[in-house]
Each structure stands twice: as structure tokens, then as C-alpha cells.
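Appendix B. One record, verbatim.
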Amino acid sequence: MFAEALLLADLEFLPMLSYGGIAFLAVIGLIFLIVVLRYGAIWFQAFVSGADISLRSLVGMSLRQVPPATIVTAKIMGKQAGLSIDRQTGISTQKLEAHFLAGGNVMRLMQALIAADRAGIDLDFERAAAIELAGRDVFDAVRTSVSPKVIDCPTPVGGVHKSLSAVAKDGVELLVRARVTVRTNLAQLIGGATEETIVARVCQGIVTVIGSSNTHMEVLETPANISRGVLERGLDANTAFEIVSIDILDVDVGKNIGARLQTDQAEADTRVARALAEIRRAEAVAFEQEMVAKVVDCRVAMVRAEAQVPKALAFAIREGNLYSTGAPVLFLNRSTNTRPVDGLSTDGPLLMPPQSGDDN
């Protein structure tokens, strides 16, 4: 009885299970159809090209916000170029996805790897990815390493080529334009100095070489000495480039800086001399005024002394200390321009009157 009841129950649930299974299979089929319609063409392209990408990887790329077409195209490029795209040791799908998610340019990276392989340059995926993620254009770096790049020195501003100014020992200015041919040094591309550093160092070297020349004629006669002197300085040390050559494009004679400096110095010396002369003149004028003041003081003293002479003479006459053999004489002040009368001269010695005892 129990077995019959159980069999009857199974028969009742069998239609329900059949409907559920059919629905499940329908959902699975719909999902598979969507996947095939969405990724079938890309997967077939990768399969035919030998790119070794599974359908599951394509679905996972979409879930990780990675464009499957970019990864597939990059792997196809690598496969056709002869690069190793093995999942274990080569450029795997996982590496390309990681590089894309890190913000790198997968297509540019693959182009750089292909160009380096064709040129015989030792560049692996890890180094190329590091260069690309460091903000450098890895494809341009490989291309510059294969085909050297020419840099104008100094750098043109607004499309206008300017000249570098340097002065020789004789004081003559020379206007120089040069071109530097550089090749990318992939070993120092990460952390190495850029083109601006190369231009600055070359400009500094040109100025130094010209400044060490005795005359500007030496530079004009042999401009190659500039290139030789600059190259010997090893200006490409710790830079992302290797200097291949330095070519002097143009050398023009500018101003005579030495003569202008001498003229400015002479003018400065003249101004200093004038200032010193003005100081001496002012001192002389001040000394003259001091002497004039002293003369006035002396005249005042003389006038005071002359004013005491009449009093002294009068006192001498009253006391009988001054006498004359003739008539009495009246002495006047010298300032009245008078002179003694009755033959009495003030230039002679003063005579004392005779004593009463001497008459006997």
C-alpha cells in the first residue's frame, strides 16, 4: 500500500518537474544564446587567429569593465607578430587585463613590443608596461630608439627659432643655433631626465665652450670645436636619451659686450671722479669760508687792539714816560690815515724823559 501511494505521488509531481526542467533548460539556452550572439564573433576571431582566449574569459572581461575587443585585438597582433602569448610565460590575457585596469594603453603597449621585437631591441612585457604606466609613450620611445630624434637647441618658442647668446673672452657676443640628435635609452627611461634637461645641458655646454675661447674668431673659424667640446662633457648622463651628435646650425656675431662693459665702466669711473671732485670742491669752499671767518676775527682783534693805542699813549704822556725834543705831538688813530707831526715818528724808539739828577 505504501509503495503504491509513493508511486502515485511521483506520477503526480512528474509533470511539475518536467515543466521546471524545461524552464531551466530554456533559461540556460537563452543565456547561452545571448553569450554566443554577444561574444561568438569575437571568440571565433580569436580562435581562428590562435589568440587562445576562452569564451569564459570574454564574459569575465565584460564583468570587469574591460573591453573584450581590445584585448582580443592586442593578442591577435602579438600572435601574428610572432610574440609569445602563452598563458604561463607569454603575454597572457590576464596581464593585458591587469595593464588595462591599471590605466595603461594596451594597443600602444603591444605596438611597442612588436616594434622592439622587429628592431632587435631587448624589451619585455614587464618593462614596457612599467614605462607605459610611468606616463611615457613607450611606442614613441621604441621608435626614437630605432630612429634618432632631432631636437632644436634652444627650443623654439611659438614656432620662432631663437639663438643662444654666448660671449668669448674678447667680449664679443656670438649667437648660436644647434641641433641635437638623440636616441632613447630604454634602460634609463624610467626616472631619467627628459628632453628639457638635454637642451639645458647642451646650451650650458655651448656657453661654456665659447666662453673659454680666447677670441670669437676661433669659434667662427672652427665651429666643430663647439660640438666636440660639448660631447666630451657627457651631458647625457642620468637622462632618458643618448646623445648621438651635436651639429652647429648657425653662428652669428652679436654685440661687443666687452666694449660696452668698458664704456659703462668708464662712465661709472667718470661719475665717481666727478663726485670726488665735487666733494673736494665743497671741502675747499668750506675751508675758504673758514679762512674768511678767521680773517674777520683777526680784523676784529686788530681793531680792538688799535682802539687801545690812543689810551696807552695818553697814559704814557700823562705819566711822563713819553717825550719829544720838539713841540708836543698829538698821536691819532691809524684808522684815520693821519701821521705824526713835528718830526716825531712812531717807528723810532720811545725815549724816556731825563731824570733831574742827570742835568748836573
